[in-house]
Amino acid sequence: MRGRYVDYDTGNPRAVSSEVMDRFHFIIVGAGAAGAAAAWRLTSKGYRVLCLDRGPRMEPSSYPSTGPDWEIRKRAEFNPAIAERQNRFDYPVDDADSPIAVCNFNAVGGSTVLYSGHFPRFLEPDFSLKTNEGLGEDWPLSYAELMPYFALNERQMGMSGLVGDPYYPHIEEALPPVPLGVAGARLARAFNEKRWHWWPSFAAIATRDKGGRSACLNLGPCNTGCPQGAKASADNTYLTDALRQGLTIVPEFAVSRVLVKDGVAYGVEGFDANGERHAFHADNIILASSAIGTPRILLNSRNAERPTGIGNTMGLVGRNLMIHPLGYVEGIFAERMDTDAGPQGCMLYSLQFYRSQEAGHKLGYMMHALRGTGPVETAMSALGKRKLRFGSDIYGDFDALYGKQLVVAIICEDLPEVENRIELDETRQDRFGDPGIKVHYKLHENTKKMMVRGMTRGRELMAAAGAVRSSAYGPVRNTGWHLLGTARMGDDPQHSVVDPSGKVHDTDNLYVIDSSVFVTGSCVNPANTIQAVALLLSDRIDERVRQTIL
Question: Tens digits of per-residue pLDDT, 312-348?
Fold first, then answer.
């Protein structure tokens, strides 16, 4: 059985509903990290699944890094900050009331098209934060329950790395790690000198040919899309396999609302690429549109029965937003290194301060080593810092920076706070007339202390590595990739939006499986955990519905 894409011919508008006549067991809204994993898992069990995504089907040959103007396109249609990008597949986002901009990408493959591929797991203590540390809430599932799904996800995505990190003793299989290179080796020696933990990055990057994907060529700018296909994205892994199993995908379909009658979800309504309104019906609806897209749909699904939106009986939809505030420590070195080659986000990391009680803060942070930037970004950054003079000095100023930068990101664990939230913005609408969103987010005092301490430690590391000078600042604005927690999972409907199977408490046949359900945020990149949770919830959903629809 093979699935299909249902694409649009914008020159000859046609009714989508007339092309997709099947009665589906599931509609999945969102074809990114979580939605793709769920689509694969459910189609493998024999379900008929329709996946809808507001973004287009991507063509890797058109990614920016296939041309010399890649850094210009990275600041335009491939800009990760949605408020700056605002292409026709986006909805308005007002994040002026947040020091950190919302970053995502609306396309088949979602934000995995542009992510760096850094692929650690959340750690075991992250799932019982309240029990262990008296903070936040405990998850209604454990690391032990997720372990087989982590392993499954890492095989499906083709994770590379080095087995044996004491912080990840349960990782038993990986492709060879991405090479450290000259820059990584320099930092590794500095970590050793400080006697701090470090480890080569776990990465969703194939270092050997795998599943039709070619091995990494060390091109560099992973966050503009990987034309080589070495970086695992949802479209070149899970969706490819799900299509073989019968999945139907409709790109460029913007879901506006979930259809509910008498407390039961039975379909979704939205707009095709030509602005025509359509509805699709299914036995069950699964939302996987990210921690901003999913609550936007839930809140916009207002009706006479649910005047404040679906799932929002207790007013919790959109609340407890976590973002992972990031500090930036840059070291400048006298000699050129290989910082302009290789995956920029997958070199090495340190969990030395994962649970640090330094300087009066709780929880901790990950130190994540990054390679340097491209020539245009290097020049623009230097110009902004008044380190680039025009005239005959410009070449020397540029040469003093380019290929000589090393960066350590300080990724701070965020605490869920009810006032950190998104809400509908009725003053700004997308091209279909649906409201945008407004972000309300402030840094917790604990996070501020953590970031200052982490940046201090980062500068110590740069000194040990031999940097001629270093600088640090944070929070960095365009780093809001790790969006978590806006439809929290829990056993108690008074304090959560969905139950431990992802079912929305106040609506039957409606599920959420993406990062919205996260209860806490850890301090490590969440992509691996997002997909592992989606796979686990897919199995729990299967257990709930199997007797009724198969």
Answer: 999 999 999 999 999 999 999 999 888 887 888 899 9
* Tokens linked to 338: 């290989």
Report whether 226 contacts 78 (CB < 8 A): no
What is d(CA 424, CA 401) in angstroms, rounded to the nearest whole number?
43
Cite the DSSP H helix spans in 331-416: 375-384, 394-399
Distances (CA, A) of 73 to 68, 342, 376, 403: 10, 20, 11, 21
CB 450 within 8 A of CB 412: yes
Residue with tokens 């590391």: 461
Which residues make Cβ contacts (< 8 Å) with residue 220, sequence separation at least 6? Answer: 65, 340, 341, 342, 343, 344, 371, 374
**Residue 393, pLDDT score:** 85
Distance CA 481, CA 484 (A): 9
- Residue type present at position 332: I
Which residue type sits at 249?
I
The residues pairing with 254 across neighbouring beta strands, listed in sequence order, are: 271
Q: Which residues of 439-461 are buried (b: 16+ CB within 10 A; e: fewer)?
A: bbbebbebbbbbbbbbbbbbbeb
Helix (H, G, I), strand (E, B) or coil at 546: helix
Below-70 pLDDT ranges, the chain: 1, 8-22, 549-550
DSSP tag of 204: S
Q: Kindly list the distances between the CA atom of residue 343 and the CA atoms of 75, 77, 205, 234, 326, in Å, as whole numbers in the listed order.
A: 19, 21, 9, 18, 19
